[in-house]
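User: For my dataset I need records formatted as: sequence, then structure tokens, nothing else. Please produce one.
Assistant:
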Amino acid sequence: MKVKSLVLIAVMAALSAAGAFIRIPVPLVPFTLQTLFCVLSGILLGPKRGAVAQAVYVLIGLAGVPVFTQGGGFMYVLKPSFGYLLGFIAGAYVAGFVYERLELGGGYAKMFAACLAGLAPIYLIGVPYLYIICRFYLGMTNGPATVGGVLISGFLMFIPGDAASCALVSFAGKSVVGHLRRMAE
């Protein structure tokens, strides 16, 4: 990889870490700007580099650097929100992949669709992980440990904010994407 690519990967990993500290506390999983930076990394850097940026972020946190919303370290894998962090890697890849292959021109609609597609793996990994940790590790038997509770507290509660994040990325990112992608190559 070129030095420019490595720098951009590091910047997106750092922005994901910063996004963890811009949060609105809600039960179990806080709303943060991490999803915004996750899908943005895939769109700006492409699927592979975007996924690498998110993997770097997760690995730094697992190594003990407190870059997650509640700290860091290997034991973070037992936090209910860790599945979403794993989903960021796949989410960045999917957002970048869809953005590169979607035939909608280079405008707002294409970027918005790619962002929404990038959210899917985050939730597909994060929500079941939330259920498994709450139910089987934390021993919860009601509330968020039910399927309905997990769908509300781990998915439905976040859709409006994540859709707004996607709109923001689509609006602001359109003018930046081409320039940054050329820099990374």
